[in-house]
Design goal:
The structure is a homodimer of 97-residue chains.
Chain A lengths: L5 H14 L2 H9 L5 E2 H8 L3 H13 L3 E6 L2 E6 L2 H16 L1
Antiparallel strand pairs in A: 1-3, 2-3
Helix pairs in contact in A: 3-4
Chain A binds a DNA duplex (30 and 30 nucleotides) through helix 4.
Chain lengths: 97, 97
DNA sequence: CTTCTATATGAATAAGTGTTCATATATGAA
DNA sequence: TTCATATATGAACACTTATTCATATAGAAG
């Protein structure tokens, strides 16, 4: 049962690394069931607009979030259910400790 | 659907952060289906004994691995199926990209 | 065109992290 | 006890990363 060829080791680590920051975890958490624009995310998790924007850039680059533009605002949402699954499994693990 | 109270945000991030290093990913990968002692892990993933030991300490502190002593050797294994589940879900995500 | 709001981004700084190297500890064998 | 092997650990260093601050971009409203 060897799930990884050497090439993918880095990719896996990079994926989990993205879930490994509390600001990004907060962003993912508030996006679990709805899309939000940047400033609403910032308000919701009480982090500066700039910091949220920087982190969204990372989440976007990893294709963990998608976005759509509506006038002046940009709404972000989780890319797919896979992101939710990984996140929820992590939550379950924590809750069982 | 708000899975996190503020208190747990850090815990979740800390959990994923542990999966977010390629040396630790390699260690988890070789422990998926068997236990191994430290020097065998080091050989298997081609990383120094010291580096492996340092990373095992982190995995141990997070209760992601368990260990047993046999004479001179210390065999490490994944703590439980939860660790495997999270890891495999990450692998699936990567393989689907 | 000007102003206001929303978002992005670059630079700088501070904090965190992984590896290496040297060494300590501990167990087994002789 | 002495030697060899397995593992752990502390310090140092290089590297990465998240935030802040200032500023740029862009769209909407007046």
């Amino acid at each position: 049962m060897n799930l990884l060829d050497e090439d993918k080791t880095i990719d896996i680590a990079e994926l989990f690394k993205i879930f490994g920051d509390s600001t990004r975890v907060k962003i993912i958490n508030v996006l679990l069931d709805k899309e939000l624009c940047v400033c609403d995310i910032a308000k919701a998790i009480n982090v500066s607009q700039s910091a949220v924007s920087h982190q969204l850039r990372i989440l976007k680059a990893a294709k963990l979030v998608k976005f759509r533009k509506v006038g002046n605002c940009i709404f972000y949402a989780l890319s797919d259910d896979h992101v939710k699954k990984i996140f929820k499994l992590g939550c379950e693990h924590i809750n069982e400790l």
